[in-house]
Amino acid sequence: MSVHxxxxxxxxxxxxxxxxxxxxxSMLTAYDYTMTRLLDQAGIDVLLVxxxxxNVMAGHETTLPITLDHMIYHASSVVRGAxxxxxxxxxxxxxxxxxxxxxxxSAIRIxxxxxxxxxxxxxxxxxxxxxxxxxSAGIPVMGHLGLTPQSIYKFGTYTVRAKEKEExxxxxxxxxLLQELGCFSVVLEKVPASLASKVADSIEIPVIGIxxxxxxxxxxxxxxxxxxINDGFxxxxxxxxxxxxxxxxxxxxxxxxxxxxxxxxxxxEQY
Length: 271
Description:
43% helix, TIM Barrel, 12 helices, 8 strands
C-alpha cells in the first residue's frame, strides 16, 4: 500500500472535531497541481481554491473578474494534487448573488466538474437563501464574513471591518445565522481580534481567521504571500515564511548567466 493510500482525508467532520479538541486548523490557498502536492504532503488541513486566483494567477486588481469556468479549471487542478487536505472552492462574484437557483447551479457545477469537497461564499443574512439552497443539495458550505473582497467597491477600501458597534453586532449575528443554516465553518477576514475571539467562542463551528487574531480556531493565508513570491503585498497580518521572490530571481539570473557563458549544459548534462 502506498503512503498516499494510508493518508486519512480531512473532512468537514474532522474540522468540527478539531475545534472540540482545541486543535488549530491550518489552511492555505492553492490554484495549481504542482503547488498543491507540496502543500498537501507538508500536512496542510484545508486547501482553499480562492477567487484570489484573480489577483495571484491572472494579475487582476480585484477578485471580481474571475469566472466560474476559471474557478473550475483551478479547482480541478488542485483536487488532482490533494490526497489529504479538504478542498474548498470559492464561488466567484456573480455566480450566486442574483438568486438562489443560480447559486445552486454554480455550486453543483463546481462539485460535479472538479471533485472538490465544499464551496465557500461571502456574506451573511443577504445570501442566506442561497446558502440554504446549496446545503439542501448536500453540498457543504463555508461562510466568509468581515472584509469580503467581492464587495470591495461597496466598502471602497481593504481596511479592517466591524470596528464600529453596529457592524460588529451584525457580524456576530451573521456568524450565528451561518451556523444555524448549516455551514460547517466560517472565515473571518480582517476584523478586530477581540471580536473574532468572541465569535469563535459563541459558535460551535470552526472559525478560521485571516487578519483576525489568534483567538480563533484556525488560520488561512494566501500561499504566494506567505512564501514571499508575491513581494509587493505586506499587510500587518501577513507573516512571510520565505522570500522566494528573491531566491527565484537569483536562480533565473544564474541560469541566464550560465546559458550566456555556455556553462550550461556541461558534459554531464547532455546525451
